[in-house]
Predict the 3D structure of the following.
Amino acid sequence: MDRVSGIELSRCWPKMKANQKMQILESLVQMEKKFVSAPFPAIGSLYYKEDLDDDLPHRPLEQDHIGSQLRKRTFVVGPTTARNFYDFGRGQVEFDRGPWSSAADYLKALGAREERCIEQLGVTSHQFGLFGGPGSYKPSVASKISVLEDYRKIAEYLVPNNPSSHPPVLWHGDLHMGNIFVDPDNPTRITGLIDWQATHIAPLFFQASQPHFIDFDGPRHQEMSAPRLPSNFGQLSPAEQQDAEALELKQSLFKFYEVESASQNRPVHDALRFQQTLKYQTVAYAASLLTGGEPRFKGKLMALADAWEKVVGKADGPPCPLRYSDEDRRDQEREQRLWMAGHMNMLRVLEAIGEDAQIGWDGWVEPQRYDAVRERVRDARKAFLEQVAETEEERREWAKHWPFGGAEELD
């Protein structure tokens, strides 16, 4: 293993000028263009042929990135090592991990994976909300399996209509500034990317992502023209002017990446746009249902049924296999309200615990901070129980469903 040269981009970024930051984004777009230019024969993960057991399914790499025939078959595509096929207990369940020949097969496999894991693992403690107490939403294996059965009926229709987003590609899915190394004497020159261990091969529309460091909380600039400072900039206070300038830079970098991708790497641009559609959102809900919310997922399925002609891309396409009655829709709305209440409770608890905690947190914390975080968890639990429980019986019932340590550990 070689050591990458240079220093982390994070050490240079604060002092770099706007045009230098845009040069970094230009370089990343060109790197991503190379990712897209080298599609693989199947969806899965890349292995040395000699490292993969003969009885495991695999597809040989027969051509290089420019389409020339390979004389030596050194690499193969085998079962995926993607984290979402192993996290939250999925690793202990047997199911199809590929490789797969098409994007449609991959989408079907995502649903089958969640169905199998829910059957084997049940309703885990890693749900995206605080549920189970009196009057709250109560996730169940049956309700989760039911919506996945509906998903199975339509999964093949959820691939993008644009085939340029289908090819299986390798992608670096964690481009934050600590993983990008640059030349300290010329910080606009990228010398390497690190942290590839979770990299796998999947359809471009599932892989494509913007570099993390250009994402931001705030309004997106919707026009194709460059963002501008507000017209009343001169009347703002110095602090407000500083905030306005910071927002303009964030908007400019985000827009620059979007425009540069549209110009230089259209398949990625189209894949990112697809991720904003109902089709993709439905797939994303299906792929996380072991811990996610079935009422929201069912709402997406209902929306797909209502817009079926648009989903399949033609008026004379196959009829929609999903049917929902008015009663089904009323039940979904009621369950989604309960689910959202539990989800918001979880977000408030996580905010009280602090930066260590997030959705899906398993309680891991650095040893030197254990006592402080444990104290915050205790305080958050106490405040939560005071908020939701009116009687001692309700308090005991809610305490059974507290996901971050048992009552005997925190009381």
In short: The mean pLDDT is 91. The beta strands are 7-8, 45-48, 59-60, 75-78, 168-170, 180-183, 186-193, 201-203.
